[in-house]
Amino acid sequence: MDMTEGNDPAEESDPKVSIRNLYKIFGDDPASVLAYAQAGMSKAELLAEHSHVLGLRDINVDMQAGEITVIMGLSGSGKSTLIRHLNRLIEPTAGQILVDGDDVMTYGPLELRELRQTRMSMVFQKFALLPHRTVAENAGMALAIRGASRAEAAEEGGRWLARVGLEGYGDYLPAQLSGGMQQRVGLARALASNAEIMLMDEAFSALDPLIRTEMQNLLVELQNELHKTIVFITHDLDEALKLADHLVILKDGEIVQQGEPQGIVMQPADGYVTDFVGDINRARVLRVRSVMTPTDAPADGAAGEIDCDATLEQMIALTGGDTSQNYIVTRDGDPVGELDMKDLVKALAPETGTTGTNTAASP
Amino acid sequence: MGYYDGLFDALGLRDWCGGGAAQDGPMTMAQLLARSRGGGEGEAVATTPWWQVPFPSLDTLNASCPAIWRTRDLTAWVADGFLAIKNTLKVVLDPLTQPLSWLLDGAIWAMLAVPWWVLVAILLVAVGLLTRSATLTASVCLSLLFLAFIDHFDYAMQTLSIIFVCTTICVVLGVPIGIAMSKRDGFQRSMVPLLDMLQTLPTFVYLIPLIFLFSVTESKLYGIAIILYAIVPVIRLTDLGIRLVDKDVLEAADAFGMTPRQRLLGVEIPLALPNIMAGINQTIMMALAMVVIASLVSAPGLGVLVLRGIRNLELGVGLIAGFSIVILAVILDRVSKAAVGRISALTPG
Asked: Which domain does B180 fall in, by range?
């Protein structure tokens, strides 16, 4: 059920992490009912007739290096189960998990530990810091696990604390910090492990809205510098759209739609996704490139130029609300399309705003 | 003849019972009483009203059918069985438990050999370091001096040294057992009934088999009794403490690739420590309770004075010794609780 929008250049390189035909069934004997799940028996039927709970069905996701892949779904959709398969905190019933082309499912305990210690770090919803260790020791936990001395680990931890804005808090205990600060420690701990892949399980969901925005900005800022491969779980669509390079929407353990976030907003695959994207502030989420008409040679008479990554909100502010004009859309100064302000206004109203031609969704 | 003669006859078991043959062995008290009332047993059956039907116990059935054991045969069988394995058991247990005797004797000897003022100083420093509380240290000092003033210091120190040795062994054995229980549900299920039994068995009952196994003059006799009785809380609370460790923190430990050893020593034990310490506090108090009773089997200390009070009806001796035990108990409880509090404060959450 791959609904990836086309012409995304990143899709062509080998993915950093790849999930193939993943199934997870909870119950006494999952293997016995796997065939039914694969044959398409519904979650309700599986529970009623075989008393097994379908956790995940036929999940296929490619995660590109240096991108943030956001997996979004409501509670019970299986998103937290899915992320725990990546480092095998939960064992799948069937399927493959490829990291750098290597099937993690074939790993023994030693290789698995090596994967968790050096190649994948994790940030948790409830922070999960060690309450009896100082903040700096917590931040340096990954190094201590690998065998560094406590002092070395705390020093490296302290360096990352400074990066997440907690300089000088190293000697505190986690309980002495606020929730937002504790999650900064959680982030520092994951970054200090220096793993290329970072799993973030509802990392900001337990925080106040303002702190959450602050943490999202921090993550974006760090990501621009570090280019980690991040798998981010959330139930918040605004957060998903803000962070995602690749968005996966889960419902009842199945992928409903995945692809570039702009594409999902412009062309929801079904009613479920439509309902989901109906509530968002489209002007803030949508970018000019999603509503422009692509062309190499824009017509004359344009009122001005606009970068393709500008949001519609910025565009409206620029024009002062005037909808009578056309603009040239540029990427790095070169024209890539033109924008009729009428299209922009149409795009703000979800039901009638999308036309067949305005769906190009390249970053 | 018994009440149930008819039943055995009806079932055709009379031959198996050996007919109406007289039973061997001495008479039971019931038979003796019946005979002294002058009536024959047969008449007793005839005159028993229906609402006084005797319960078909071993003794009652035996009256009708001598092939069935009497209860006294059962107790004799238990005794014979125990005596039969006693020597084998002793060969195994004796060398294993011998160090316990040495430890207890050594500890008691050391406590008494050190001059009183050195001993008081050492104890106060230990209390000070453990609790970091000046008031508690001062009250311990006063209590010890009071015990010394009424000439109960040596007794109290004997009791204290036994408690130290036994509690230490309880912790050394109990914490690993508790950890093993927390890791394996099957092991936990099999241990719980055993722990329940150790905790509910009347304290005197511990002493009975031990008296037969070891000589009453050996210190390990009471040492084993105290350890068996006092080890339960530290095992239970270690198991509980480790099971209660925050699942999220354990998941984080796994996600960052901790080895089982790192996880146990770096996360589980530190986070379970407040519970483990609460178990140790309980263990100390139970060891104190048992050391008094163990004076029956030659455990030295304040219990000996209590026993003297009971045996010789020396009211004052018994009560003063009892009061001294209370002082000791309060000291031990407060100090160990203060230590628990300090450790819990170090590991919040």
From this structure: 81-346
Is A65 part of the contact surface with chain B (CB cutoff 8 Å)? Answer: no
CA distance between the termini of chain B: 72
Asked if B270's CB is within 8 angstroms of A87's CB, the reply is no
For position B24, what pLDDT does the model report?
58
CA distance A181 to chain B (A): 16
Angle at the Cα of A125 (from A242 to B343), degrees rounded to 5?
A: 145
Closest CA of chain B from A197, distance in Å: 12
Q: How many domains does chain B have?
A: 2
- The mean pLDDT of chain A is 86
Tell me if B73 is assigned to some domain: no
Which residue among A126, A145, A173 places its CB closest to the CB of B248?
A: A126
C-alpha distance from A140 to closest chain B C-alpha (Å) = 11
Residue B30 placed within a domain:
yes
- Residue B128 in any domain: the answer is yes
Supply the pLDDT for residue B65: 82
User: pLDDT class for B18, splitting at 50, 70, 90?
Assistant: confident
Domain of residue B185, CATH code: 1.10.3720.10
Q: Does A121 touch chain B (CB under 8 A)?
A: yes
Q: Residues B58, B94: one domain?
A: no
H/E stretch holding A303 reads: none
Query: What pLDDT is stored for residue B310 in this prediction?
Result: 92
This prediction's pTM: 0.80
Rounded distance, CA A18 to CA A104, Å? Answer: 10
Do B193 and B61 lie in one domain? The reply is: no
On whether the CB atoms of residues A327 and A300 are closer than 8 A, the answer is: no
Rounded Cα–Cα distance for residues B299 and B292 (Å): 8
Query: Does residue B76 fall inside a structural domain?
Result: no
Main-chain phi, psi angles of A324, to 5 degrees: -95, -5
Give the Cα separation of A265 and A282 in Å (integer).
Answer: 8
Strands A326-331 and A304-307: parallel
Question: Is the CB of residue A90 less than 8 Å away from at least one CB of chain B?
Answer: no
CB B226 within 8 A of CB B289: no
> Do B252 and A173 lie within an 8 Å CB cutoff?
no
Q: In the numeric block, which tokens belong to residue A324?
A: 């009578």
- B16, B44, B68 - which closes a domain: B68
Supply the ipTM of this predicted assembly.
Answer: 0.82
- Answer yes or no: do B275 and B132 share one domain: yes
Last residue of a domain, one of B68, B102, B119: B68
Instruction: Determine whether the interchain pair A122/B258 forms a contact, defined as Cβ–Cβ distance below 8 Å.
Output: no
Q: Do B257 and A115 touch (CB under 8 A)?
A: yes
Residue from B256, B264, B271 to probe the interface with A (highest A Cβ count within 10 Å): B256
Check if A130 contacts B (Cβ < 8 Å): yes
CB atoms within 10 A of CB A341: 19
Distance separating alpha carbons of residues B348 and B16, to the nearest angstrom? 72
| Same domain (yes/no): B109, B64 | no
Q: Which residues 176-205 of A are in CB contact (within 8 Å) with B?
A: 189, 193, 199
pLDDT tens by residue, B248-280: 999 999 999 999 999 999 999 999 998 999 999
The verdict on B261 and B316 lying in the same domain is yes
Do B58 and B140 reside in the same domain of the chain?
no
Segment B184-212 shows an average pLDDT of: 90
Residues B99 and B223 in one domain: yes
Q: What residues of chain A lie within 8 A of the CB of B258, using their CB?
A: 145
Among residues 144-163 of chain A, which lie with CB inside 8 Å of chain B?
145
Q: Which residues of A touch B262 (CB under 8 A)?
A: 145
B136 and B37 share one domain = no
CA distance A31 to chain B (A): 24
Of A121, A132, A145, the CB nearest to B347: A132
